[in-house]
Specification:
With about 250 residues, this protein is mainly beta. Helices cover about 10% and strands about 55% of the residues. It comes from Fibrisoma limi BUZ 3.
């Protein structure tokens, strides 16, 4: 009877030691509160020639998949760079993007130490298929200039209004990561998303002249594009960027 008690006590001690050892070796990192959606801002959209204030939302749809949508709006003078939209009386930009993401593997903070992550929002390397659309509306005053020997001022003819429509698709690769707190063994809810991609885009100009004697546009309108070209245009397209996200 006494031997049985000692045997049970020894078995209990061995079990507790095993559990303690397993707990000490557990290197899984998890969030304290589930997060499925991430709000994102695109700061680099302000240095685009068609600058916009742009925000988006990524929502996790599976263990390694998510969907993301972005919307942006801009106006003349918003870009931090010298932009061709400054040549117009009025200008505005509307932009929309949506994509499906496929995350390739489990995200790890330290591969040599095999520290794995269980997160309800997606982290790590990914590839994505993106569709995008953009509309630029510009307005320019038109004048009729007299010969040099004439003393009269240029005669105002009216305004030219143009809407440029752009649509296309990209295949992208990127990485989304978060800062890790080794003391609390948790990740911050601030994320960073870096990506690049390539694809094609289609563009067409809709020109509306209010004067039958319109002289046309005299603007080159940015690298590789024109607001006065008639007919549609297919061109290669590249994309790259950085987004800052906040887990909800």
């Amino acid at each position: 009877m006494i031997k049985s008690r000692y045997i049970l006590l020894a078995a209990l001690l061995i079990t507790l030691a095993t559990i303690g050892t397993a707990t000490a070796q557990d290197s899984t990192v998890s969030l304290r509160r589930p997060v499925r959606a991430v709000i994102k801002l695109a700061p680099l959209a302000l240095v685009d020639q068609d600058a916009t204030l742009q925000a988006g939302l990524e929502y996790r749809t599976g263990q390694r998949t998510s969907v993301q949508a972005e919307f942006g709006y801009g106006w003349k003078g918003l870009s931090l760079l010298e932009a061709d939209l400054e040549d117009f009386e009025k200008a505005e930009v509307w932009r929309a993007r949506s994509e499906v993401r496929f995350y390739t593997n489990r995200y790890r903070t330290n591969r040599r130490k095999e520290i794995a992550v269980k997160s309800s929002f997606p982290l790590g390397n990914y590839w994505a298929i993106e569709g995008f659309a953009k509309q630029i509306n510009v307005t320019k005053n038109e004048y009729s200039y007299q010969p040099i020997e004439a003393s009269s001022a240029p005669r105002y003819l009216g305004q030219m209004s143009i809407s440029r429509y752009v649509a296309g698709t990209h295949v992208k690769i990127g990485r989304q990561f978060a800062f890790y707190d080794p003391y609390r063994r948790t990740f911050s809810r601030t994320l960073f998303d870096i990506y690049l991609g390539a694809g094609v885009r289609w563009a067409i100009n809709d020109v509306r002249r209010n004067s039958p004697t319109s002289m046309g546009m005299d603007c080159g309108c940015g690298p590789g594009r024109s607001f006065e070209t008639e007919g549609s245009q297919w061109t290669p397209s590249l994309t790259a960027g950085l987004k800052v996200g906040f887990g909800l």
